[in-house]
Amino acid sequence: HPTESGFTTDVLALYDWAKARSGNSSILFWGHSLGTGIATNVARKLQEERGVQVDAVVLESSYTNIREAAAHIPISKIYRQFPGFEYLVLDSLALANMFFHSDENVKVLACPLLILHAEDDAVLPLHLGRKLFETARSAYKDKTKVKFITFPEKLGLGHDYISFNPELPTLVK
Q1: Can you give the residue ranges of the AB hydrolase-1 domain (predicted)?
Q2: How many whole angstroms separate alpha carbon 144 and alpha carbon 27?
Q3: Which of 3, 15, 58, 136 has the fewest C-beta atoms lying within 10 Å of its C-beta?
Q4: Residue 170: which H helix or E strand, with range?
Q5: Residue 90 pLDDT level (bands cut at 50, 70, 90)
């Protein structure tokens, strides 16, 4: 069964593998959706346990933590009104040790952080990405290292297609 700890361990192993083969090349973490929680977990773990700061973290279609994300995804809207929603859905994530506390992780990071979110994201609402940005910005000593870029609804990028934007390479640089 996939676990938050297992995801984090896997990405740490991948980081070690890439670092051993990359020479002096920059390594950044790019997480999309659920992967944003994994990316912040690993960046924090490297910083706190190894004293290693990754070169940058890019979060695409991010959220604050998995509980808040699950409470706000549109499919949960019809179930939120029923008794037991929090216990059956939200608490079950905690019981499975699935937290993905990006909001807590970004408070201790010091590497450059870029958050990307489409205004028409129908899976993870824009306000979750904005809230994560505000949390990071208030915690970072160097505010210039934290950026938040939104993509207008008219582009139709939604939850999955920010990477298709031809301006993305320039924005990331």
Answers
A1: 5-73
A2: 20
A3: 3
A4: helix 168-172
A5: low
